[in-house]
Here is the input.
Amino acid sequence: MKAIPILILSAVILLAACRKDSFITSSDARVNLSTDKLKYDTVFTAVGSITQFFKIINENDQKLRLTSVKLMGGSASAFKMNVDGIATTEASNIEIEANDSVYVFVQVNVNPGAGNLPFIIQDSIQVSYNGNMKKVQLEAWGQNAHFLRDKEIIADETWVNDLPYVLLGYLRVNANKKLTIDKGCRIYVHADAPIIVEGTLQVNGLKDSIDRVYFNGDRLDDPYRNYPASWPGIYFSATSKDNIFTYAVIKNSYQSIAAQDLPSNTNPKVTLNECIIDNSYDAGIIASHSTITARNCLISNCGKNIALIKGGTYSFTHCTVASYSNPYILHRDPVLQVRNFDASNATEILDAQFRNCIFWGENGIVEDEVVVNKTGSTSFTVKFDHVLWKVLTTPSNITSNQVINDQKPSFDTIDVSRKYYDFHLKDDSPAKNKGADFGITTDLDGKPRAVGLPDLGCFEIQ
Here is the structure.
């Protein structure tokens, strides 16, 4: 009698095994697609995009045979498909094990078109099984651009806002040559493409968002569009001079502005007027024995927001310099570092002034957001005039006037989880009406400043 239950159990196991080895053919078979749409943000023509994917999931206890997975646009489509490891426009009779899935990878390659405005590219992938049909919609925004690989500026040149500029390899402005970038230009830079300025770079943005000049990485798809260190940055060599940025936005670089050595004339090597530098992995502004003048600038959420080393001459007026630890960059360095020596302890004359500025950081491991260090006997002058900062130990080798210490600036919105930062001041900010009149009549938005008692930082409360 004991053999009967054993036989029954064996039969059940055998039936279950046979069931898993058989194919479900019912139209009621449960098949799920991990998404019904793949979207690609702006893809520049002839560059392509990252590969996205979706899964076809067999939720049944039996095998499933897909009749076909078909790219509806066929070989003429801008999209390319790979099904379960095979590049094809149509795959047939694909077997999926019980409670298993297959991957479908999709890439878009955009061919150049005639227009200079973004254009939409669409297609779909049709999944057929057991008399059923499901679709995944494909959508990409493509745009033509000027593609410049290993570009050398060997004569004075002007870029106008007709198409975006995509830099591949590198861009070099040769000594004694000038590159002028007109209002509204968008510069998208590949991961291996530094901008090297041995001559002069002039950026002529205007206050309206559409008329500002933007420098960014060329990956505009999520999540890469917000990654720091997406491109190297802009480097000003020893021979560079007379560089002026007006209403420029520089984002997501490794080092946004890097200046080396004094210029050959008495003008600042780099002048920054109404500029935004954001999300630079290593440094927003880094200078070694150089000269920089900045007005109404926002330098935010960089590894080192401002690092001025081995002396030089610097002037920052109405600037907001702020960092908050976030998933990309841990705030572990002061937002302002100033010293008159380099790693080899070589020293140079230092003359730096900071007027009507805010220096602030939170959520990190920094106690002193302003650090000033001196060594040797070379001339050393560092002045802070009407500033708000977060400092536990005030530097001993500076002069200061009207300093507000460790009072939160009361920025409009700081939302690290959503990666949203608005550094405008609220009406209750301690920085309100605490500035001195240094002759700057507008703010970073191009809006008027209060006469006599302006606010600290780059934005004026309106």
Q: What stands out?
A: The chain has a mean pLDDT of 93. DSSP finds one helix and 35 strands in the chain. The first strand starts at residue 31 and ends at 33.
